[in-house]
Design goal:
Blueprint: E1 4-8, H1 14-25, E2 28-31, H2 32-40, H3 44-51, H4 53-67, E3 73-76, H5 87-94, E4 96-101, H6 104-114, H7 127-145, E5 150-153, H8 160-172, H9 174-180
Parallel strand pairs: 1-3, 1-4, 2-3, 4-5
Helix pairs in contact: 1-8, 2-4, 3-4
């Protein structure tokens, strides 16, 4: 099977859904940020702090290039991964891209909980400040997310039952079936 790339904003559920989907389909799961951290020997936050966002995005593009040739793999990308020039075209050509969309009412609490580990949200100490940062980012990234082959509402990936239901909807999607059922 060609790779499946999960894209979407920070905390939209890419890692959560990716792990569950990989387990269900018997595929390998790779979290892109974690793979970058392993290769660089430092956290994403440290890469941003010591080398800058441009260096991080270069590492990200390099890793995606490698992952495009993998088979039987689900890749949870970073929220900004698809926004680098040519990345969506590259992922779409190599495999199936799936955009996860979380409703703001679900997204903001998730973002507030994990903001310390997200360099772009480091200054968001209140939900109002979070919205000031997130809304323009979401708007700028939406055209890239819209280029995905499939889109799923990931607002309700909070419990195992909700995750299982989303995995089921994913597998039953006609595009997924057409792409992967006969390989």
């Amino acid at each position: 099977m060609r790779p499946i790339f999960l894209i979407g904003f920070m905390c939209s559920g890419k890692t959560t859904l990716g792990r569950a989907l990989a387990a269900r389909l018997g595929m390998r799961f790779i979290d892109l940020d974690q793979a970058i951290e392993e290769r660089a020997g430092m956290s994403v936050s440290e890469i941003f702090r010591t080398s800058g966002e441009d260096r991080f995005r270069s590492l990200e593009a390099e890793m995606i290039g490698e992952m495009c040739s993998l088979t039987d793999t689900i890749v949870a990308t970073g929220g900004g991964t698809p926004c680098r020039p040519g990345m969506m075209q590259r992922m779409n050509a190599a495999g199936l891209t799936v955009a996860l969309d979380a409703r703001p009412g679900r997204l903001y609490p998730r973002l507030m909980q994990g903001r310390e580990n997200r360099p772009l949200l480091a200054s968001a100490h209140t939900e109002a400040r979070m919205r000031d940062i997130v809304e323009p980012l979401l708007s700028a990234r939406e055209p890239f997310y819209a280029m995905a082959s499939l889109r799923f509402d990931s607002s309700f990936l909070e419990t195992e039952d909700e995750i299982a239901a989303t995995v089921g909807r994913f597998i039953e999607n006609p595009l997924f079936k057409a792409e992967y059922s006969n390989q």
